[in-house]
Prior knowledge:
This protein folds into 2 domains: 6-82, Arc Repressor Mutant, subunit A, CATH 1.10.10; 89-142, 2-Layer Sandwich (Dna Ligase, domain 1), CATH 3.30.1490. It is 36% helix and 13% strand. It has helices at 6-15, 22-33, 40-50, 56-68, 135-142; strands at residues 73-75, 82-84, 91-95, 101-104, 129-132. Strand 3 and strand 4 (101-104) form a beta hairpin.
Amino acid sequence: MERLDLKRVESMVLAQGLKMTPQRRAIIEYLQKCDTHPTAEEILQAVNLQFPMTSRPTVYNTLNWLKGEGLIREVFESSPVRFDPNTSPHHHFVCEGCARVSDVSPLDIVPPSFASLPGGPRVESYQITIRGQCAGCQQQSGSVSLFA
Ligand SMILES: [Zn+2]
Ligand SMILES: [Zn+2]
């Protein structure tokens, strides 16, 4: 699986003559272990717990650099833009209840057939977005709502 890796990023940063600041390292460390497809604001909040002076431009610049290097991907499954440290081909499940976006392995989906697509395009990749209620939200909707 191709996934954001701090050690690899550090060597790329060095090779490009850039500086790895503690804030940048914290952003990458957070993304590396995060499986919730965080937004830029969520990343900013998380990194600010560690480095309270981390600025919005630092987060956005770091995300843009990582994206440019192909180390993270943007995900548009539920607005706003989210960031994905998993750059292997995979699908997403979007919970309509809590808006959480989680990875779905291609191994868990029967591959669709593209043979009958009009015009016979050569398909190089595809991504399936599955929408519904995650396990947690199913439990919640099964119980009596406090706000009913
Ligand atoms: Zn949910
Ligand atoms: Zn993903």
